[in-house]
Amino acid sequence: MKKQLRLAVSAGITFGIVTIFLFLIGFTGTSGDLLADLFGNKNAAPFLGLTPQMINMLIFLALVGLWAGSYGSRKSKGQMDDPWSPAVIGGLTAGLVHGILVALMAFLVGTLNLRHVPINMYLASVLPASIKMFLLGYSPVQGALIYFSLFTLTGFLGGLLSRGIGRGGWRVRLMADWKNAWGRFNQTSLIKQVRGNRYTRLVIYGVLLVLVFLVPLVAGVYWNYTIGTVFIYVLLGLGLNIVVGLAGLLDLGYVAFFAIGAYTMALLTAPAPQHLMWSFWIALPIGVVLAALTGLLLGAPVLRLRGDYLAIVTLGFGEIIRLLSTSDIMTNFSGGPKGVPNIGGPTLFGKPFNSAEDFVYLIFLAAILIIFVTNRLQNSRIGRAWEAMREDETVSRAMGINTLKQKLMAFAIGAAFAGLAGALFASRNKFTGPEDFTFMVSVNVVAVVIVGGMGNIPGVIAGALVLKGLPEVLRELQDYRVLVFGALLVVMMLWRPAGLISSSRRKMDVEKDTGVPAPPKEGGEK
Amino acid sequence: MPTVKAPARRVSTYKIVQAVLGILFAGYLLWRIYVVFIGSPTYGADTWARFIIAGVVLGSVYALIAIGYTLVYGILRMINFAHGDIMMIGAFGGYFVFEAFKAIPAPTLANPKLTFLDANPILSVVTAFIVGASVAALGGYFLEKIAYRPLRGAPRLVPLISAIGASIFLENAGQLLFGTQRRDFSNPVILTRGNGWNLPIGGTTVILPYTGVLTVAVSVLLMIGLYLLVMRTRLGRSMRAVAENKQVAALMGIDVDAVISRTFIISGALAGAAGVMWGIHLGLVYYYVGFLPGIKAFTAAVLGGIGSVPGAMLGGLFLGLVESLGPGILGMSFQLADVIAFGILVLVLIFRPTGIVGEVLTEEKV
User: Fold this and answer.
1) Fewer CB within 10 Å of terminal CB in chain B, N or C?
2) What angle, rounded to 10 degrees, do the helices at A2-24 and A52-72 form?
3) pLDDT > 70: what percent of chain B?
4) Residue B98 is part of which domain span?
């Protein structure tokens, strides 16, 4: 009982702080816009004096309240199986605490706003308009009461929903049913035949290919640009996937190779600092080779370090390259902080081939090439050596793997892919400068690899689509994208260190211990 | 695990290259020092004195942050990547204390416009340090509890990635909460930046700023306090025991989780104090303020041999001096001071990852 109360109070405090934080960073208002996009009710008529945005915000906050209630009513260890009292007490207590905290905040902020205290001078996201919206146009006291009752009610409901109706029970059963059904579906002879058949696979690939080549024709300039950016991140992710995912070397300065590819393309094809104006098709391989060479050069001394030291050294290298490119001493060579404008685009059979749409094709081609290479590498002796090295360096060395050589190879190949991505990126944007190569780019790529699933190709593609594509679709999220990146990295490490789509080898690792034999793999290892 | 004696070591090409590069670099450095001081002096003694003052002040801030890295690394063998952002939290804590005190009027007959901040500078500064350190300590505590504790025993990359995530989260939370603009740290009038004692050096006067003296003094005090805490108290003893061996420490009845938690609180408090110093001395706070000092302090910790507290102090001081003297000695543009710091980081990690004064670490630690 006491334990239950303590759990509930701490849940209430946690969710109270989270809700207040969401308000202070301005997310409560944004949630209204976001849901309006989802429901499509942006221009609906006001209801009970509340704009659709306010209603959406209330819906969002109610969901948070439900979650708080269900979290507060979770079972403490060694508790008797009596569902009702914890549901009522836990949910209600969590809701009460949650409500009191948020109501206090609403009252405080509302009062300050009434006295014209410029809160947004210190808390940038708390604008008078957003305070007004948060209070739904009511006075501070009324607003506080509304939130108090909202969270108490939803907390109570959340507790009832999750415990009263047998928390754990229905969810576990549903998951089990779903898993069984999926398993049975997979075991049916027709599906097996279709999946095992090489021709069906070919057909699927063909359909995918056709789709991929049709999309840029349909999409407009904006979407082609966005798709291009997303797939540049796919290229980068696939490159880093070799370094981090397969070889297990955390590289936080990956942007350096991206920068080298981009600057090579820029300096060789642009008229400005170097007067070379070579063809795109010559500059592209040079950029790739230069990036790979830099990878070898940087890697040779650095790769003797392990794990976290390697991460910091590569971060240092990345920052050095960025600082040098912004400094004055490089102005004559590479444009300095101004960057390089007028980068040349590719020509094909004498015609310019440099619209956003054309670049989508180029980037797709590069992605297919990289996927092919990665796939072949992964299943080769080299790929196995990388994965062995990732799992245990000492053992893999004992097995006769020349770890330094393998690490260098991974580093150089990863760098080459980044160089390719960089060259395409610079040529497509027709401009490149130091701002394109901040530490955040490295972090984004690491996030793509980790969120998608280290060491597996579909995972990386999914990661890039989720992390770079979703914020484009949900434009309201733009401001919170990086924040969510950070939180996602932590959450992924806590809950799903293997990523969204875990690679088959890792899965086998996990399933080994459950006593259930892993299903035989189709295709691949025949 | 029984250790196997390595066969007789042959001198690897790597070692030779390393030695040759080292000698070349040392030669270049000596030559530059000769050129700058004796050959054709670029700066007078007063300029060098200014560089040294700036370097010592900066170094004492780095040292405080570096101690946090070293304490955590010593115990958990992980780089607390978000440590610089904990410093940012502390800096904002101090900033808000000064802003709040500035808003309180404390009129006297002589000066009706006097604010509480200017009327009670000592109280304000002490409050700022206490608030900054406590906020940052809280941040450190929750950081450990949320992002690191569940990952104990995971492969080494996992907590590091989690730390990077936490760092990005904190930076962006700072940006969304407090905005992107750089805020002026409003010191009490007595501590106006640029004011100080005038020292006659090389024919002109060199200012020894009050803020700098305050920074160094507080930093030294905190370091002495930390030394006493680590060497003389029960908590310090258990911290050292946990750093030595977690399992055995647990067998001796030490609550390992509590010790780790307290380590994060202590290192957070030190970083918070460093953040307030940063604000008072350099004058600007913004969401990204912790990133560079964080990485540089990590460099300092590595320089001094990560895991060793005196090493971190020395490393911090050394790095501060190198950063302010380096561009002058090497004849580089002052824009490149950060490049020198990062260059040292890379060089030390490549050639001597155990640090300059560090113990010889086993391969597992490096």
Assistant:
1) N
2) 150
3) 93
4) 44-351
Quick check: B68 and B80 in contact, CB under 8 A?
yes
Does A122 contact B99 at a Cβ distance shorter than 8 Å? yes
Q: CATH number for the domain including B134?
A: 1.10.3470
Q: If we measure between CA atoms, which residue out of B348, B288, B315, B237 comes closest to residue B64?
A: B315
Mean of pLDDT values over B67-73: 88
Position A415 scores a pLDDT of 92
Alpha carbon distance B147, B168 (integer Å): 12
With beta carbons less than 8 A apart as the criterion, state whether B101 and B86 touch. Answer: no
Looking at the domain assignment, is residue B37 inside a domain? no
List CB contacts of B332: < 8 A, sequence separation 6 or more: B326, B339, B340
Which of A17, A489, A496 to probe the B interface (max B CBs under 10 A)?
A: A489
pLDDT for residue B3: 58
Residues 6+ away with beta carbon under 8 Å from B195: B207, B209, B210
- Calculate the average pLDDT of chain B: 83
For residue A189, which amino acid is it?
A: S
Question: Do residue A446 and residue B336 have CB atoms under 8 angstroms apart?
Answer: no
Torsion of CA A425, A431, A432, A436, to 10 degrees: -70
Using the predicted structure, report yes or no on whether residue B108 has a pLDDT greater than 70. Answer: yes
User: Whole-number mean pLDDT of chain A?
Assistant: 78
Residue at B4 is within a domain: no
Q: What is the pLDDT of residue B291?
A: 86
| Nearest Cα residue to A137 out of A51, A59, A58 | A51
Contacts of A246 (CB under 8 A, 6+ apart): A377, A378, A383, A386, A387, A390, A410, A455
CA distances from A229 to A358, A441, B351 (A): 13, 12, 38
Is residue B39, in this structure, part of any structural domain at all? no
Q: Could you tell me if A323 lies within 8 Å of chain B, comparing CB atoms?
A: yes
CA-based R_g, chain B, Å: 22
Tell me whether 0.95 is exceeded by the ipTM: no
Which of B176, B336, B342 minimises the CB distance to A483? B176
| A482/B168 CB distance under 8 A | yes
Considering only residues B47 and A306, tell me which one the structure prediction assigns the higher pLDDT: B47
Q: Which among A315, A319, A489 has the least Cβ separation from residue B161?
A: A489
Instruction: Please say whether the beta carbons of A93 and A68 come within 8 A.
Output: no
Within 13 Å and on the Cβ side, how many CA atoms surround A45?
2
Domain count, chain B: 1
Which amino acid belongs to residue A154?
A: T
Assigned domain for B365 exists:
no
In chain A, residues 101-140 whose CB comes closer than 8 Å to chain B: 122-125
**Whether residue A522 has pLDDT greater than 50:** no
Pairwise CB contact (< 8 Å): B162 & A483: no
Highest mean pLDDT among A112-116, A150-154, B193-197, B271-275: B271-275
In chain B, what residues touch A123 (CB-CB under 8 Å)? 177-178
Strand partners, B205: B200
Scan for tokens 């070397």, then name that residue.
A249
- For an interface test with A, the pick among B18, B89, B146, B157 (most A C-beta atoms closer than 10 Å) comes out as B157
User: Measured in whole angstroms, how far is the alpha carbon of residue B32 from the centre of its chain?
Assistant: 28
Nearest CA of chain B to the CA of A310: how many Å? 9
Dump pLDDT digits (tens) for A327-374.
777 777 777 777 777 777 777 776 777 677 778 888 888 888 898 888
Instruction: Give the tens place of pLDDT for each residue, A184-224.
Output: 776 776 766 666 667 777 888 788 878 877 777 777 778 88
Structure confidence by residue, pLDDT tens digits, A442-499? 888 888 888 777 777 888 888 888 888 777 777 767 778 778 878 888 888 887 776 6
Does any CB of chain A come closer than 8 Å to the CB of residue B345? yes
Report B:98-127 residues touching A (Cβ under 8 A). Answer: 99
